[in-house]
Specification:
Blueprint (H helix, E strand, L loop, with lengths): L1 H7 L3 E9 L5 H11 L3 E13 L2 E7 L2 H12 L6 E4 L5 H14 L4 E3 L14 H11 L5 E2 L3 H8 L7 H12 L6 E4 L7 E8 L2 E8 L9 H14 L4 H19 L15 H6 L4
Parallel strand pairs: 1-2, 1-4, 4-5, 5-6
Antiparallel strand pairs: 2-3, 7-8, 8-9
Helix pairs in contact: 2-8, 3-4, 4-5, 6-7, 8-9
Length: about 280
């Protein structure tokens, strides 16, 4: 009986995303982040990528019906505390995921609109962008685009300053999601600024920019922290604040990593390494 009670209290987070064979982003980054934060991670694969630090050389989509079968299997077994979506590949996959989310009433939902990889490779079919706008984003509790993703979702130029970021965040909010955090990590300002917009409330998060080529997986880690926190009952604003700090520390620790021949990953394992005074 005691073991059953303890198991029932274990927070579970679900990631619905693509696989990154280099281990720096996607499902692999999400599960590492969940583990670091003490949350049990379940996963649904939407696509396989042949990927390294130098780019994406191939994508093999998982059939949408099998994506749905994975969600049904996990949701029918676990008490899922929060869920995130990452790479969804095509319109049919978006539709399958949305239908499953609604059927199983999976919330809170964090939508990380993965459109382009850090390397610049496209990860979302053009027709899927419209499906994401029309079907997935209205179902989201929080949307986490970077500057380029926000611009693509709105068919607008990339925001050049915080006023532009705020305007785009508010435009995205009108698509139907409950909250938007637009990430300014790809900006050129001295600070890396993120803006969280919930209704009329705006919260600014800013930390010094870190210069490094090892930025692979930042968006995945950011949204994964939010999901892990939400699965444990942490409010959105605190979850975003924690995600901002986590990614900042992972970028900082990642400057010392020598992995691959291209844009290496951030070090999401830094939190574990801190316990042994390794970073």
């Amino acid at each position: 009986m005691t073991q059953d009670v303890a198991a029932a209290r274990t927070p579970v987070a679900l990631t619905i995303a693509g696989s990154d064979s280099s281990g720096g982003a996607g499902i692999q980054a999400d599960l590492k982040t969940f583990t670091v934060l003490g949350v049990y991670g379940a996963s649904v694969l939407t696509a396989l990528t042949a990927q390294s630090t130098r780019g994406v050389s191939g994508i093999l989509a998982v059939p949408p019906a099998f994506v749905r079968k994975q969600i049904d299997a996990v949701a029918g077994d676990f008490a899922i505390g929060a869920v995130k979506t990452g790479m969804l590949n095509d319109r049919e996959t978006v539709a399958a995921v949305v239908n499953a989310l609604k059927h199983h009433k999976l919330h809170p939902l964090v939508v990380d609109p993965v459109i382009v990889a850090t390397s610049g490779d496209t990860l979302l079919a053009p027709d899927a962008v419209q499906a994401m706008r029309d079907e997935l984003i209205p179902h989201a509790d929080i949307l986490t685009p970077n500057l380029h993703e926000a611009a693509r979702l709105l068919d607008q130029p990339v925001a050049k300053d915080e006023a532009g970021m705020l305007a785009q965040a508010r435009a995205l909010l009108r698509l139907g999601c409950k909250a938007v955090v637009i990430k300014g990590g790809h900006g050129q300002w001295a600070e890396a600024v993120d803006l969280l917009v919930e209704g009329d409330a705006v919260t600014r998060f800013a930390l010094p920019r870190i210069t490094t080529r090892n930025t692979h997986g930042t968006g995945c880690a950011f949204s994964a922290v939010i999901v892990a926190n939400l699965a444990q009952g942490v409010p959105i604003k605190q979850s975003v604040s924690d995600a901002k700090r986590f990614v900042h520390e992972a970028l900082q620790a990642g400057t010392r990593l020598v992995l691959g021949k291209g844009a290496g990953p951030v070090d999401v394992l830094c939190a574990v390494q801190k316990r042994s005074q390794r970073c």
